[in-house]
């Protein structure tokens, strides 16, 4: 087979020119900035003139200074919580909806599929703003009271006990469509005869799902888990849209993403002087956490490839 | 085949080369003598007013065109920093007061403005201070100050037979009366965090701790940040929380403005810069000073806010400097003030009459009272966030006034 392939290509290195544009873009816009930010985490100072090499000074400062340590671990824990809510709500509901949508007796599939997918097509700033109004007693309190739902009239996004969960659920609501669609596609790919065979053997719906469907879509489950993990560790927009970059109230919705933005890009209001080295240090740790998190999941779920 | 591949690569490389040229061309003016200067700002709301001001300036300097290019306010410092670092900064730009501005001067981006004609003569020392380096060098020309007060709905006050309060106790009594009648007394919320500190707490703090002469004592450590005055100020925030809208925990600054503007709330403690928002209000409104508690003197938080400076690396230093010098003349300052949005007040020494009724109402609050910048700005900026959190926690009942004051005082270096 390899011989045949070689014969199609006239000159040995001709393929390079096809790879070049993609490679160039990848290196310039992905690989180089990534490596440069790793390098940046070892420096202090904001402009080239005052930049100074300080080794692991930024990391030491991040974990020894009282406020920055408290902020980092706060954001770290919140990010994990944010991720687990997504795994639990977004992905479990995604699988459930996908199983229902691919059921042979399901009616109006197109309609439900569209309804589930529509929020994904909206801008986060728009949905965030809408939810901010919906969850605000000032604007929706009267309507809810009239519907005899007074117990829902609470500043959900304004209390530190409920804010993070509310923000996570808003994000789940918005992005549910993506895992649902991917699971639908994976479930459709399961050969009909497997399901038929299980049916004939007398498997009930749960057994069919647990022993036939789930094992066969496991690679997709793994991919979704990885995507959720990576996206949530970089989450920023939904908090920005529904709360503020401080992770209000009282830093209770502060994620690694917002912390990074505050420290490395915008600087703390009102002075707003960013500390790019410290920001890069936070990004470097996130990069390592992601690497450590992604590899085992990949290994566990993608071995069939 | 080979030829075409070479052509492909060549054209690709050419494209890469052309892009920067195209970008660069945008910044170079095509005309022969016409000079285009850009001006960076955080005042996205003022495009129209600044447009008028810059058109006026064009009459004086016909060959200079200044383009106003504002950035979203919370992003201004970061964006400006990014532009300056990458050498694409504007020629003229708004400068923040105190530490934020000093930092950019130290980094070599803000020009030394000390020798701009008229600057040192036409401003009082206290008005120059926010943009002065410790060594006396000026890094910007003062442009405008803002004030803080209570906006109130005159119609609602009249309908309920209420008079403008002169003490904090009277103010609370009014709030109580309004609430009992089913009217939300105050529009303020805490969701955006900054407004409750900058407009409300720091706005009323001079009532409790006094003016600049007293502030300095706190900065030097002679007075403690958890003394009785501070505890009283935090306690005032705790007392007032119940008069904020129901669910004020998730009420944003915009929500507050809408609540006041739609007459759903009778009062709103805010900065003078919002005055323009209510220009078309369908009701009568006015402002009164945030009243001090009985036995203390009412003082005003009159905050030096905007100054304009020039970029050290501008291609047209003479033209940029000429504009700054114009702002230091009586003629320039008057034109500028006339075109400032309402709620911004000139800082120059000349007697300047403002046309706007509400602007004059704001300025009138200053007469006979002590004024000062926002408490943390001059020297205690690192206490901004802790104080912000403390105020919110006191309002939510998560801290007592004493605990709040202690938590901030403990962080003072």
Please explain how this structure is put together.
The complex is a heterodimer of chains A (305) and B (413). Chain A is mainly α and 305 residues long. Chain A has one domain (65-301): MetI-like fold. Chain A is built from 15 helices and 2 strands. In chain A, a hairpin with a 7-residue loop joins β1 (43-44) and β2. The radius of gyration of chain A is 24 Å and the shape is globular. With 413 residues, chain B is of the alpha/beta class. Chain B is built from 17 helices and 9 strands. In chain B, strands 1, 2, 3, 4, 5, 6, 7, 8 and 9 form a 9-stranded mixed beta sheet that branches. Chain A binds chain B through residues 10, 14, 17, 20-21, 46-50, 132, 135-139, 141, 153-159, 243-246, 248-251, 265-274, and chain B through 1, 5, 8-9, 12, 74-78, 81, 84-85, 96, 99-100, 103, 107-108, 189-194, 198, 245-252, 255, 259, 381, 384-385, 389, 392-393, 396, 398.
Based on Cα principal axes, name the global outline of chain B.
Answer: globular
What is the CATH class designation of the largest domain in chain B? Alpha Beta
Rg measurement of chain A, Å: 24 Å
Q: How many beta-strand elements of chain B?
A: 9
Structural class of chain B: alpha/beta
In short:
Chain A is mainly α.
Key phrases:
heterodimer, A: 305 residues, mainly alpha, MetI-like fold, two-stranded antiparallel sheet, 2 strands, 70% helix, 1% strand, B: 413 residues, alpha/beta, D-Maltodextrin-Binding Protein, domain 2, 2 domains, 9-stranded mixed β-sheet, 9 strands, 45% helix, globular
Would you spell out the secondary-structure blueprint of this structure?
The complex is a heterodimer of chains A (305) and B (413).
Chain A: H1 2-8, H2 16-40, E1 43-44, E2 52-53, H3 57-64, H4 66-101, H5 109-117, H6 124-134, H7 137-146, H8 163-175, H9 177-188, H10 192-201, H11 205-216, H12 218-233, H13 237-242, H14 256-266, H15 276-301
Antiparallel strand pairs in A: 1-2
Chain B: H1 2-27, E1 35-41, H2 47-60, E2 64-70, H3 76-85, E3 92-95, H4 98-106, H5 119-122, H6 125-128, E4 141-153, H7 154-159, H8 168-180, E5 184-186, H9 194-209, H10 212-220, H11 228-240, H12 253-261, E6 265-271, E7 285-288, E8 300-310, H13 317-327, H14 330-339, H15 357-366, E9 371-372, H16 384-396, H17 401-409
Helix pairs in contact in B: 2-14, 9-11, 9-16, 11-16, 11-17, 16-17
């Amino acid at each position: 087979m390899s011989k045949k392939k070689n014969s199609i290509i006239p000159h040995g290195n001709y393929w390079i020119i096809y790879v070049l544009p993609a490679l160039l873009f990848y290196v310039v816009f992905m690989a180089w900035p990534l490596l440069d930010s790793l390098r940046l985490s070892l420096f202090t100072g904001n402009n080239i003139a005052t930049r100074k090499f300080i080794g692991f000074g930024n990391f030491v400062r991040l974990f020894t200074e009282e406020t920055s340590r408290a902020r980092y671990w706060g954001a770290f824990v919140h990010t994990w919580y944010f991720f687990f809510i997504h795994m639990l709500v977004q992905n479990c509901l995604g699988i459930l909806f996908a199983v229902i949508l691919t059921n042979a007796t399901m009616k109006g599939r197109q309609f439900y599929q569209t309804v589930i997918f529509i929020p994904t097509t909206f801008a986060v700033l728009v949905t965030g703003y809408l939810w901010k109004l919906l969850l605000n007693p000032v604007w929706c309190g009267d309507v809810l009271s009239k519907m005899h739902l007074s117990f829902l009239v609470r500043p959900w996004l304004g209390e530190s006990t409920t804010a993070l969960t509310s923000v996570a659920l808003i994000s789940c609501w918005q992005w549910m469509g993506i895992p649902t669609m991917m699971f639908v596609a994976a479930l459709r790919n399961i050969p009909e005869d497997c399901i038929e065979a299980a049916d004939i053997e007398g498997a009930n719906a749960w057994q069919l799902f647990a022993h036939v469907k789930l094992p066969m879509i496991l690679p997709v489950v793994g991919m979704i888990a990885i995507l959720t993990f990576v996206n949530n560790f970089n989450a920023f927009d939904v908090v920005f849209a529904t709360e503020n970059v401080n992770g209000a109230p009282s830093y209770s919705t502060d994620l690694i993403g917002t912390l990074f933005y505050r420290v490395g890009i915008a600087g703390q209001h009102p002075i707003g002087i960013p500390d790019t080295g410290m920001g890069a240090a936070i990004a470097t740790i996130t990069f390592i956490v992601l690497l450590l998190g992604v590899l085992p999941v990949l290994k566990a779920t993608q071995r069939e490839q | 085949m080979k030829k075409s591949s070479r052509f492909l690569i060549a054209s690709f490389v050419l494209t890469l080369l052309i892009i920067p040229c195209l970008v660069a061309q945008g910044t170079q003016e095509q005309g022969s003598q016409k000079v285009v200067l850009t001006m960076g700002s955080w005042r996205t709301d003022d495009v129209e007013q600044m447009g008028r001001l810059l058109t006026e300036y064009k009459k004086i300097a016909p060959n200079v065109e200044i383009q106003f290019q504002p950035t979203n306010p919370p992003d201004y410092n970061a964006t400006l920093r990014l532009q300056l670092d990458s050498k694409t900064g504007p020629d003229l730009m708004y400068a923040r007061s105190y530490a934020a501005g000093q930092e950019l001067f130290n980094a070599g981006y803000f020009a030394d403005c000390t020798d701009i004609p008229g600057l040192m003569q036409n401003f009082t020392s206290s008005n120059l201070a926010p943009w002065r380096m410790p060594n006396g060098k000026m890094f910007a020309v003062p442009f405008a100050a803002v004030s803080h007060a209570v906006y109130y709905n005159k119609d609602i006050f009249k309908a309920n037979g209420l008079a403008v309060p002169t003490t904090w106790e009277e103010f609370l009594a009014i709030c109580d009366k309004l609430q009992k009648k089913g009217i939300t007394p105050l529009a303020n919320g805490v969701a955006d965090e900054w407004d409750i500190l900058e407009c409300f707490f720091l706005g009323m703090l001079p009532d409790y701790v006094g003016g600049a002469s007293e502030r300095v004592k706190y900065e030097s450590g002679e007075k403690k940040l958890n003394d009785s005055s501070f505890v009283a100020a935090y306690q005032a925030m705790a007392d007032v929380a119940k008069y904020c809208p129901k669910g004020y925990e998730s009420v944003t600054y915009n929500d507050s403005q809408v609540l006041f503007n739609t007459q759903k709330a009778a009062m709103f403690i805010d900065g003078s810069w919002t005055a323009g928002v209510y220009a078309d209000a369908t009701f009568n409104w006015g402002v009164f000073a945030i009243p001090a508690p009985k036995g203390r003197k009412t003082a005003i938080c009159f905050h030096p806010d905007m100054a304009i400076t020039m970029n050290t690396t501008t291609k047209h230093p003479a033209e940029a400097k000429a504009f700054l010098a114009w702002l230091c003349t009586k003629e320039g300052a008057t034109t500028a003030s006339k075109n400032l949005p309402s709620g911004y007040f000139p800082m120059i020494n000349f007697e300047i009459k403002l046309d706007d009724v509400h602007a004059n109402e704001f300025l009138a609050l200053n007469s006979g009272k002590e004024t000062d910048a926002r408490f943390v700005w001059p020297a205690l900026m690192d206490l901004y966030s802790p104080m912000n959190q403390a105020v919110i926690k006191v309002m939510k009942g998560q801290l007592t006034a004493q605990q709040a004051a202690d938590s901030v005082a403990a962080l003072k270096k």
